[in-house]
Amino acid sequence: MRDWNWRRSLPTLLWLAAAGFAVGALIALA
Amino acid sequence: MTQARTGVAQRNITLVLLVGVAVAVSLGVYARVHHASGHPLFTLGFSGVLQMKTWLTSAATFLLLVQLTTALWMWGRLPRMTSPAPGWVTPVHRYSGAVAFILTIPVALNCIWSLGFATYNWRVVIHSVAGCLFYGAYAAKMLGLRMKGLPGWALPVLGGAVLSLLVVLWLTAALWFFTRTGVPLT
Amino acid sequence: MAEGSISRRSLLVGGAVTVGAGIAGFFVARDKWARSTSTIAGANGYGAPAPAASGAVLSPLSAVPVGGGIVLAAKGVVLTRVTADSVKGFSSICTHEGCTLASVAGGTINCPCHGSKFNPATGAVVHGPATLPLPVVRVAVRGADVYRA
Hints:
Chain A is an all-alpha fold and 30 residues long.
C-alpha cells in the first residue's frame, strides 16, 4: 500500500471511524 | 448523454438517496423502539450532559459555517472571490467537516440512548426528526461525492441539507438550553 | 468537485476502519457505559454525587432561609425550611429527566429544565412534567448546623 495516499484519506477515515464507533455502541446498548 | 450514461447517472442518484433514507429511518426506528434508558452516558468533563451536548453541538455548527464558506469558495460562489480557491481551502473544508461530524457523535449517542425519539412536544419532535435526517443527509452527501454522473444540484442540495438540519438541531436543543435560567452554563 | 469514484483499495481501507471502530465502540459501550452504576436517574443526570454520607455537615442552619430553602448541588441535597424549626431534605435531582434543581422560590422547589415544581414540605409534585415525588433525604439539626441523618 506504498502508493496509498493516507494523508489525503485522513478526513474520510476520521468520520468513518466515528460513525462506525457510534453504530457499534448503539448495537451494544440496544 | 448516451443511454448508458443516463442509466448510470440515474442509478447513482437513486442509490445515494436510498442510502440517506436508509440511515435516517434506521436511526429513527432504533431511537423509537429502544426503550429510553433515562440514564446519562457521560459528560466529557462538562458539569452535565446538557452542557456537553450544547457546547459540542455549538462547536459543530460553527464548524459547519466554516464548511459553507469553504464550499462556496471552492465552487467560485463567494462574492468578489471568483478565482480558483487556494490549495489550503479544500483540506480545511474536509477537516472542518470531519471534526464537526465527530463532535456530533457523543451528543447523538446520549440523545438516542437516554432520551430516544421523543414526542412530548413539538420542539422535541422536530429535533428527533431532524436528527435522523441529518445523519441520512450526511451519509448521502459523502456517498454522492464519490459517485459519477450526479445531477448538478445534488451535492449543493445535500450539503445544504446537512447544514440546515444541524442548524435546526441547534435551535431545538442548544438554543433551548441557553434560554433556561438557573442551569450552570458549562 | 467530486473526488472520483471509490477504488477497491479505498473501499477496503474505509471498510476496515469502520468495522474496526465499530468493534471498539461495541466493547466500550457494553463494558463501560451499559454497566454504568450511576445512581442518578434521568437522561440529564449530572455527575452530581449521591447525597452526602450520614453524619456529614450539610450547611449551617442560618444559611437555610425560613419559608424557603437552598439547593446544595455539590452535595446532592435540597434543604427546605417551611417553618423556622422544621428543616427537610430532598434529593436535588429532578425526577423528570435528572436536571439539578435550581431553586426554592415562590413556595416551591423548582427545576430549570422543563418547569417541574415540588412541594417543599413533602417533595410531592406540584407542577409537571415530573410525575414522581422527590426522594426524601433525612436530615437533622444539631446545634447550629444541619446534618445528614
